[in-house]
Amino acid sequence: MQLIFIFFKPYFFFAYIAAYGISQNLEGIGLFGLLNNIHDPDFPLPILNLSPVAGVKIIAGLLFVLLAPLALMLVRGGFILGKKAGIAMLAIVLLPGVLSLLGISMSLVLFIPNEFHLGAGYIGGFWSNGTSFLIAFMWGWAAIMMVANVFKSQKFKHAYDHLWCLLTLVGCMYLVVDSQAKSHEESKVRTNAIIGKYLDFYNDRYTVLNSLCEANLALAMQEKNICERARSIFNTLPPEITQSEPEFRRYGDSWLANIPSKDDIERLNSSVCSHRDGSKICQETPVELLINSQELGDKVLIPTSGQTERLRRLYGKLNSEVENVTRSKEHTHLKYFLFCVICFIAGGKAATSSISFVGENNMKSRSWSRKIAFSIFFNIWFFVWLIRGNFGQPSASKL
Predict the structure, then answer these.
(1) Cα–Cα distance, 225 to 342 (Å, whole number)
(2) pLDDT of residue 366
(3) What is the pLDDT of residues 353-362, one digit of tens each?
(4) Is the whole model's pTM more than 0.70, yes or no?
(5) DSSP secondary structure string, 330-346?
(6) What is the pLDDT of residues 318-357, one digit of tens each?
(7) How is the chain split into domains, by residue range?
(8) 3-state secondary structure (DSSP) of residue 283
(9) Which UniProt keywords apply (predicted)?
(10) Dist CA 119 CA 126 (whole Å)
(11) d(C-alpha 32, C-alpha 37), whole Å
């Protein structure tokens, strides 16, 4: 049993590395929790598991089981091309296991990622994604080789070439989608920057108004409602300015409810800024925040209602752009699975090219269905044996 474990060890590590890439992108689209979350019978909702090891082991086990029929189909595909090609493919498939028995295998644990990102935005490491793409490519080569061995016709190869040519459309659409994602990100940054300037302007103006209300008791009694709103805004805005990340700032528009009415703003600006002493505390609206050229040179104590309406629209725009960027990140993870499909199709194209070397009339035929069924049964048994705890968890994968 120990020799069997040593022989299959590099294949399981190979599947384990690929499982991290699949797990990371399932996490990006919100599906990894189905395999990795903790389900407590005493708690109605699944509990978030910060460690991905449980889910990764399940996916790795499934990939490991699928490596058995893949190996047989690869060897079978080699023998379809000829005896020498079959022997060479058999040697390539058995090489990692034989080297492991001889104690010469590489330390594949070093290729297992040492970090796992929760949420969307990170598609995984080079080795984990590259391994999954390689598996998809090999499945494409083996599967199309089996199908081509049934038809043995150039028409099948030419028909498959049409599918291969359609991948150029995928490349074109990827260019468009990638450009849109960058546009959403740039627009989000610009909108957030404008809102930040507005918050600084509003904070400065309502700080002045709050100080004026505290210093002028007559004004505080006459404009009691406005002064109370100014005090509320004065206490609320600083934290909103500090939280400058768009993902947090998009929810920070509740303070706008304390803005005085349009008539109150116009009356206050007119009464304060028209006096000689009051005009010193009034200020022109920054050029980058002007709504129209008519506001140029006008001094105000607090921003006009037009500025407030524009700020409301900017908050709505920022919320929409953050949603667009979030969807773009999720689409990035979907593109990962799309590229897995492309790798499968590319493997099929490599298979039709391999057939061209020997010609359709020279392809060999023989059924290996019994061997494939036996291999699947054996690997299912071995996978169950691993899950029951007889396989040690690599220390490098523990987070």
Answers:
(1) 65
(2) 54
(3) 888 877 766 6
(4) no
(5) HHHHHHHHHHHHHHHHH
(6) 999 988 888 777 777 888 888 898 899 999 999 888 888 7
(7) 2-152+363-397, 183-323
(8) strand
(9) Membrane, Transmembrane, Transmembrane helix
(10) 19
(11) 8
